Amino acid sequence: MGIKGLQGFVARVCPDACKTVDLREVAEKHRVDHPDFPPVIIVDAMSCVRYWYTPESWVCGGQWREYLAILEDFIKAFMAAGIKLVFYFDGVVEEKKRDEWIKRRLQNNKEIARIFRFIKTHRKQPGREMFIVPSALPTFTRFALKSLGQITVCTLQEADFEVAAYGLQHNCIGILGQDSDYLIYNTCPYFSIEKLSLDRLVTVMYSREDLCRALGLSLTHLPLFACLLGNDVVPESLLEGFWRKCLVTSPHKNNSYNRRTNILLAVANYISKVPCSYSSLKHLEEMLPLGSDKTLLYRGVESYLLPGQQSPWIPPNLTSCQTFSLQQQTAVCQDKEIFQLAKEQHIQSENYTIFNILSKGEIECSNSLEDECDTEIPGQALIYRPARQHIYSVLLESGKGGAYPLVKEWFVYFGNPLQQPELIQPVQPSMPGGTPNLKTLWFAKGPGVEKQRYSTFLACFHLQDRMEELQALEAPVAAFCCLLAYLMMQVSSLSLEDLNAFVAVILCLKGKSAARLAGLQLAQVDSRAVHLGAVFVRGITTLLMANSACGFPFRMDDLMPWEVFDGKLFQEKYQQSHQGCSLEELLEGNESLYTPFQNLKSFICKACTAKKRTIQSRPRGNGFITGTQQREFNPRFQQTHRSSFVPPYHNQMRGFLWRNPQPQGKKY
């Protein structure tokens, strides 16, 4: 989170603390000083993703191949300078940050509602000033960097602490990120991702020493300074009275500065006169309205102490430097072997959310680009909940006394106030003979176990009867079909036109370069297709979770969005499909795709029919539907349209005609 206003304050009021640096020169100096240790920059990836995502389109579900190419170029630029990168990602939301996490999620909901209003009004994407990252971008960034051969770490606690500690312990040349907490930790230099010029490898270094000089403080004051301005431990709401007192006595008050800047200067002036001692800290705690928790300030200061560091504000015998505090005996999972493997895979970014479930029985999911006015499509959190319940059952099969522990879910969707977690009951998937135990799925070897992993994975998506057909497909296509069939089963408003668009995307995506996809221009943007793109991408993360739980029947690389999805391409196919274009146009004139198209579509329709779900045709034409029209949707509307498409395999090229097809095109 950082300290509100500190980054801007440094730029405006302490320009000497903002130094332009050439990272090549910094690296060269390091080589001279430490010839046996290559220069390393530790990257706070979570604060970088919004700067990395530079494709023009961001609302349609993600330009994943373009993004992968951007990450590759980023890595190459540092490799060319002989600089090694280590990427850190937040692996948990700590309890002390939950309130702030909720506050941000609710704010993001408002921003997303504004984006959808704009798209419905203008039929195009808003400007970059309204930018939010595509759904699940941090998750897929982690796996992208790993697939590009980078060291990628998923943390066991707050990422900024682990980043600062790693930078100090490994003598890194700097931290690359955008979080003012790195000005407070006494660690290696802090470089700005926002100011980075990649082609020249030049950026701004924020100097703690120069900041201290400008404020009349020492480095040991900075943790207390941060706490008295309000941070993740000490809420700002407790500090208003203290700030007023500081402002009254401050000699630096300047009417040309805003209030926050004057508060920063006044707090710095106040603590510069306070002796650096534990008794001073206790005195400050007595001054503040901390209620029953009088140790808040002490804990706040301590949170900035890295391993091996001490502070004059805290007696040495009281320092208990942060470490990963979760003990095996307090974890939901009591099997040491399973717990240890889950933990190792978590740290090495090899699994997805599994350790969070096995350790704390808790999981969260941030905002997705979903239209709260579209009542036809449930929130993705609800669409994929039945699959997650099966995944929880696979993971928590050894519940005490045969009863499953409940899983706490913090999932953002319209109508969820996030006042407390939802308690979700694991549900055993339907499998002949029951679900294999976790030890078998994770540790056993042999073709029999591989089959069990695959069938358990499919059972999480209610497709255990389709194993033979899916195994005949390429792995990314099989996973795509699994997700799409599940989605069509769960959301009754999805139509044949939606299905055609999704299937056309995976087939037409093959062989398309990032550059070609970047050149694709959309005449307009459909808000419902934006919503469906976000829902689909969130579904891919559910595939990752199931794959991790079931012992990796798929390679994780086969479950990545750049293998099966592109946001702009989906928009194009969605609009073509709903406007009744020919099969020839939908598949870009590539006749070799006609049979695969019919096969995949037929497979999904048959899987749905087996579950009593009939997919109806419901073309929306070019009439972009507004939120109010969507709220008036009547399910009986489906019955007024043509019957469903469930062609037999021997007659895949016939049996379904587009409404208003182009006469010269092949029909489907």
UniProtKB/TrEMBL annotation:
Its main location: nucleus. PANTHER family: CONSTITUTIVE COACTIVATOR OF PEROXISOME PROLIFERATOR-ACTIVATED RECEPTOR GAMMA. Functions as a transactivator of PPARG and ESR1. Functions in adipogenesis through PPARG activation. GO terms for cellular component: nucleus. Belongs to the constitutive coactivator of PPAR-gamma family. It comes from the Eukaryota. This is Constitutive coactivator of peroxisome proliferator-activated receptor gamma. Interacts with ESR1 and RXRA. Interacts with PPARG; in a ligand-independent manner. GO terms for biological process: fat cell differentiation; peroxisome proliferator activated receptor signaling pathway. Coiled coil: none annotated. Keywords: Activator, Differentiation, Nucleus, Transcription, Transcription regulation. It is found in: Nucleus.
